[in-house]
Amino acid sequence: MPRQQAPLSLEYILLGFLEQKPIHGYDLYKQISGFEPISLVWRVKQSQLYALLERLEDDGLILSTVIPGESHPNRNQYHLTSIGRQTFYAWRNSPVQHGRDIRMEFLAKIYFALLAGPETVLDLIEEQKAVCYEWLSQFHNDLMNTSENQIYERIVFQYRASQVQTIIEWLESTRKEIGNQLRSVSAKKQNSAKTS
Amino acid sequence: MPRQQAPLSLEYILLGFLEQKPIHGYDLYKQISGFEPISLVWRVKQSQLYALLERLEDDGLILSTVIPGESHPNRNQYHLTSIGRQTFYAWRNSPVQHGRDIRMEFLAKIYFALLAGPETVLDLIEEQKAVCYEWLSQFHNDLMNTSENQIYERIVFQYRASQVQTIIEWLESTRKEIGNQLRSVSAKKQNSAKTS
DNA sequence: TTTATATACTCATTAAATGAATATACGGAG
DNA sequence: CTCCGTATATTCATTTAATGAGTATATAAA
């Protein structure tokens, strides 16, 4: 059998943009590869984007409507199905299960969680932190089961433990910053409510 | 044009094993996926391994000799060419240029550097640390050029800076441990030289 | 009028990854 | 002594993904 179908992950980013409003491939490409800061963590070629859209449609997560062009070529406008919407929310609200997926996939989740509001981000961060603590104790466990003379193994496990430890600290500091903003915004609201 | 040929990286691991002694695919697979701790950072399927060997041969880095089987099936024994050997040493002794390559590729380099001896590891670590400091100042720069209200950008850059910072600390602590071992070994040598 | 650029997508080609298949020898059970 | 599973050693067909280039129309500019 062939290269196994990777269990999606970055296609969800497309769902995330479609969740905001229906859009066609060309505009979606301009948005993603242009001004949107998601381009800090994910870059896609135009032809790849069209292929991904097709796959999402095959999976029933999005649907296309042809918009005939008068002053422009025909457009293939995509919008989420209700399954697509549920699938996206489930993805956005759940932590990643491997350290290697923090770099792109988790940062992408954060991107959309921020759009959804501070509470969504805070929930996501808490859940991810819990998973990270599991990783951390696993790596500490690995280290304990490694003898002094297994130099390479120790180096690898120390690397992993230190990276996860840092991710946890970063999550915590991000949580605090978001929390502070939340409080300062609500304080301002209170303030303007009083003075008005 | 097609998916571009990735500029090698983990194929070098195969070169590293061939550098130790000529070997055929089946034994190589058993070694890599079995007892060798390199399996902590890289796993390969048997069929993939054969494909990689073929590619390395096409690239002129290894050569195969058919060893006819009397008490076993025919073997395709591979050995390094002199270009292959040079290519491997150059790879092993040079740092990686992207943070995402620390996790597997740099750890693989460390594996072979350890086999070559403590001095090789120490050199590699120093070079990698220098590169990491460049990354770090780049990320700090990114952060400085990001305004307070670009929340997402700040989160991403803080993540990256913290990860690199931790890699530097891990490199430093690894360097110390290797250095200590070197000194304790040479101390023992001196000691046994005295007492003998 | 020609020419370049923006719009919007489609396609052919290639690389990589994988499970399964192939083929031979060997050791032990019945 | 034969049958059958396991170890040895490699090859193959299939699928998916990724990419540069190609197509086609409209609009703006020279």
Q: Estimate the global geometry of chain A from the Cα principal axes.
A: globular
Number of domains of chain A: 2
Beta-strand share of residues of chain A: 5-15%
Query: How many beta-strand segments of chain A?
Result: 3
Physical arrangement of strands within the biggest beta sheet of chain A:
1-3-2
Q: Low-confidence segments of chain A, ≥5 residues, pLDDT <50?
A: none
Structural Rg of chain A: 21 Å
Subunit arrangement of the protein: homodimer
Q: Summarize the largest interface: chains and residue counts.
A: A-B, 30 and 30 residues
Q: What does the main sheet of chain A amount to?
A: 3 strands, antiparallel
Terminal CA distance of chain A reads 68 Å
Descriptive account of the structure:
- The structure is a homodimer of 196-residue chains.
- With 196 residues, chain A is mainly alpha-helical.
- Chain A folds into two domains: 11-92, Arc Repressor Mutant, subunit A; 99-195.
- Chain A has helices at residues 11-20, 25-33, 46-58, 82-92, 102-116, 118-144, 151-195, and strands spanning 23-24, 62-67, 75-80.
- In chain A, strands 1-3-2 form a three-stranded antiparallel β-sheet.
- In chain A, strand 2 (62-67) and strand 3 form a beta hairpin.
- The first copy, chain A, is globular, with a radius of gyration of 21 Å.
- Chain A starts with 10 loop residues before the first helix and ends with a helix.
- The first copy, chain A, binds a DNA duplex (30 and 30 nucleotides) through helix 2 and helix 3.
